[in-house]
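Can you give me the bound-state structure? Components:
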Amino acid sequence: MIDNAIRRAVKAVCKVDGMNEDYERALATLIENTMMDNLDTSDIYDLLDKIEVEEPADED
Amino acid sequence: MKIRITDWRCDNLRIGEGTEVFELGDPPARWSLVQMPNGLGKTSTMTLIRAVLGEEDLSVEKVRGFRANDTVESGTFELGLLIEGRGGGQAKHYRLTADFDFKAGTYRYSTLRAEERGGGHEPGLVLPSDLKHILKPEFIKLFVFDGELARDIRDLNKAAADHAIRTLYQLDDLSRLRQRIRDAVSKRQEALERTSGRTQKGVSRHQKIFDEAAGQLATLKKALAEKKSTRTKLKREQEGVRTQIEEHIARSGDLNDRRLKLSKDANDIASDIQTTTLAALIAYRNPATLSPTIRSRLTNLGTVLTKARLPKSVSSDFFDEIADEGECICGRPIGDAEREILKHRKEQYLAQDQISAIAAMKDRLNSSATSETSFSATCDTLHGKLEDRQANEKAMDRLKQEAEERGDEDMGPLTERESEINVELAALNIDIERLETADTAKQRSYQSTAKTNIPLAQKHLGECKATLDEVEASFRLSRQRDSLLDQLSRIEKKALAELREVIRTETNDRLKTLVKMEQLRVKRIDGALELESDKSSSKDDVSEGQSLSVAYAFLTALLSKAPFELPFIVDSPAVSLDLDVRKEVSKVIPTLFEQMIFFVISSEQAAFAESFYELEDTRFVTLSKTADGRIETHYGLDEFKRQSGEGIAE
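Here's the bound-state model for the whole set.
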């Protein structure tokens, strides 16, 4: 169990960044698993895949 | 979850050679006062409790520092725990052990089976998993109280207060998570074949290379289309010119007859060339037709294989014949027993599919001797046909020349144009082939590159696309990583700010009862505790008593938020306090934790230890040194008071 203060911080940051609830849950779970020494690297990749980034603009 | 310490045992440790056991009761008393003279290992015992709870790394010097004396080679420290699970289930006993080899300076942690002292060891710390992950050295220092911490939490340079909050709420794990994310992304990027560009600049560079390759391919395709269009036009013109030439020749009857015959011959020769080319190709695929020498050798091999009788159809006979011969090919006699074995085992030596392949090979080799089609002869025939075609073309040219010589003025320009068209078409065909051939041998002969050949340009474009895709994916992953790392940093900062405020408020609530003479408050927590009082907005100079009170208030506020009820163990809690403060502290301290263990010296009895005399759930343990140097452990208040009265040397 992660502390509610951390959970609230996750919620606030996700709201500012416009992340959906699915992402928020996954991020909280990732933090919780880290704190329980139960982190799987595939969870990191799964979460990264959920982050949408804009296509890079052409420098030219 | 509730964790309590029931006892500990020392074998050959600082306290003295032999075994000393400290029993705190089962279940343990809420308050335990362990009176030990200085020099008998209070600090060592605190260190050992921290070490076994946190599986701490110990240096060789530290291990040897636990040694009772130079004569002992090994020692053991054993800590008894009583752990009550969530929901108040049956409490379980755990025994954490550290075995020391003083000679080697090594140690080994293990957990003894519950309820069984001296029973089977399990390596390491074997505790409930949700407890084990929080028992880290920094966290243990909070409840196996390190006196240094009382000063450090107010030292602005040490950020110990923040550190304690971060430890309890595992905010440091967020830093660990960030590192895991960096490592995971690096690992995935390193796995990519093309890792040269993970930046936006790299992506732009590879996009440019891809665009250039695409542009090059488009240029080549356009050139091919133009050349093919030109060729179509030229072929159409060629047809027209040839028709006109034929019409002109047809005006002379004898010439026309010859033209018709030459045309028929040309068609026949073309047909023959096609047939002969096919025959040459077939002959080329049969090695036996390439030369008499190869044919002779292959025929010999077929003969040998036939004699060896390896194929399936004859292998069985081969073994049967040997068996029936009465004598083996090595010269040894074959009796009934050997004959039986030969017939029984013969199937093991050749499998069906292998035999079929060998049989087919043998048949082909044997038939190669009778092959009718010779590659060499076919080539000769083809060569002759090509010469015929050349002669036919020359004859046709002569015909055209004769027509011109007979006064046909149009024939000259027509034949000249036909020649020009032929030259142009030949050049165009070469250009087109150079552009579109996928045959690697032809590409080599043309010295083709991605800039001159369409299949190579397409291949190059595919490679550029694959590189661009990987670089883009790698760059995207970097940006996703940066985004996640940034989020985690902000989460950590935000959570820490909220937790600091929660702990600050809780600490101030406790300080109201701990320090009554001058109302102290924590103004803010920013690494360290910054104090203020009713009299001063910044209170840096506090007495030892106030300092300790602030530390207790902060720790109890902090540990009250822990997911477990923990014991609180402290060394010499009142030694630095004057009597008035001791009285204040001793009134408040007993209520702070569910289990408290105080290591005290005799001078702490006054105004501190004596405040526990009337408390029922208290255990008094007294350690004394006899005249001959032995250590004795006594339980009970009377001995506790007596030792103090005797004024043990400290």
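A couple of observations. The longest strand of chain B covers residues 2-13. DSSP finds 20 helices and 14 strands in chain B.
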